[in-house]
Design a protein that fits this description.
With 326 residues, this protein is mainly α. The chain has helices at 7-33, 45-77, 83-111, 131-159, 166-190, 194-224, 259-297, 302-305, 312-325, and strands at 116-119, 122-125, 229-232, 256-258. The chain has one domain. Residues 296-326 are annotated as: Disordered.
Length: 326
Amino acid sequence: MPNLFDYAMCTIFAREFMEGAIIIGEFRTVIQKSDIPQDANAASKDQMLREVTVSAAIAAFFAVMVVVIVAIPLAVLSKEFDEEVAEWIEGISKVIAALCILQLSLKIPKWMGYYKNKKDGKISQSFDLTITSIRFNVAWNVWREVAECGVFLLPFFLDGNNLVAIPLSAVIGISVGLTVGFLVYWANQSMKEKHYVCIFVTIVLAFLATGLFVGGCHEFEEILGETREVWAAKNDFWSHKELPMVILKPFGYSSSRSLLQITTFWCFLGVTAALHLIKFQEMKRLDLELQQLATKGKPISNSSSSSIDGDEQDAEKGAEVVKDVE
């Protein structure tokens, strides 16, 4: 009797759908917590949230279609799947996704009103959370996650012996992945203070980008030759390929580390931290300029001159001050 459940398949679905759910959840959180300007030409929060859902659904649909179109002929014709090509595709996809997530991590404080821009000699909050950026980031990352499921499952399609295990393994794995993604989303929603939400989301995305970058580089390492293994956990509980520790895999966790993995992990994480530090220092400088402009215009309270929490009342006060100075 064929096995109706395959642990490896379940893990693949859990990991990929968890990453996709986290990305969708982070976008929804940022949109809901951001101060979208009330401009007739700008998209509303409801429109942006709907765009997240639509983009994710369309991307997932096309990814499934691509997987089916590629998988069925291979399974029927029993062609051998070139694993090296799959690893190159997966590695490049992860590196590109890591850069996209890093960019998203850097933009979140800006979207939530913490980082500012100076344009034409005027200091203002930057609202570049656009429909176009939502479509690209959501669609690309959801498509990548679903397509990666297909890439990982192609060897099972070619083997043909465990195809019957796909439905149950997919249901359980997807359920686990979406549950974890929902818990991350719930944590974001339950934090009332916006600066706590900003810090939490930024850190989650920073580690997600780091994990994707390390994973992509490791794919190249497996093709070109692996570097020396520095350490490895012996207990199966700590395996990054099995539950529960597979949950931490997207964030850069691994039960074993090669020299390249250690180097890329800390280098990418260090670059990410440095970029945020540069943005933070720029924000402090511009905030100081805003206070100086306000001081020259008229005395104001600390809440209106130095607060950058993005609350509507404070934003209105700040706008009035700058207008008076001009």
